[in-house]
Amino acid sequence: MTTTGRRAVLVAGASAAAAALTGCTSDGAGPRRPSAAEEAAAREAERVARAEAALRRRAVTASRTLLERYDATLAAHPALHARVHPLRTSAAAHVTALGEGDRPAPASPSGTPAAATASGSAAPARAVPADPKVALRELAGAARAASDAHTAELLAAPPEYARLLASVAAAGAAHAYLLTEGARA
Fold it and tell me: How far apart are CA 20 and CA 150, in angstroms?
């Protein structure tokens, strides 16, 4: 009797395993529909991705605007080249680091920026003041504005991008200092 009992248990176990495997296979009715929770998670992931893409566009736009301001100032005041060009190069690197698809407008062999930028912005560039000191003050203000824009985005940014934004914002604040107070030191 004991043998029959063991055999019955083994047969029953094998039958249960076969039934479980049969229940796991597709009946050919088509692809499995996602559950409501899976659909909600997918919608949330898409919303987060859109928000992050918009944040990156805003950050790139702020840096691109500053880069265009550097270009305009250098074009209007070539005598400021030694002081402004290294900062312009840094701003161009920030545009690239923040996720710009196009490369910033390269500098010509003479060291002055190319006349046209690759941004294709529809807004006309602000006129650069004729006085170099005023032009530097306005450029410093543009650097501060870009720095403030990056700082404002920190809380909404994912951690790695927030660190990059913080670094670029700090560099923008340093640019503003170097364009104004740094000259007096």
Answer: 56
Do 140 and 133 form a contact (C-beta atoms < 8 A)? no
Q: pLDDT tens-digit profile of 120-140? A: 444 446 789 999 999 999 999
How many angstroms separate the CA atoms of 144 and 135, rounded? 14
Q: Residue 67's closest CA among 104, 99, 106, 122?
A: 104
d(CA 73, CA 105): 14
C-beta of residue 68 within 8 angstroms of C-beta of residue 138: no
pTM of the model: 0.67
Measured CA to CA in angstroms, residue 58 lies from 107, 152, 153 at distances of 24, 11, 9
Token pair belonging to 94: 């920030």
* Backbone φ and ψ of 113, nearest 5°: -65, 155
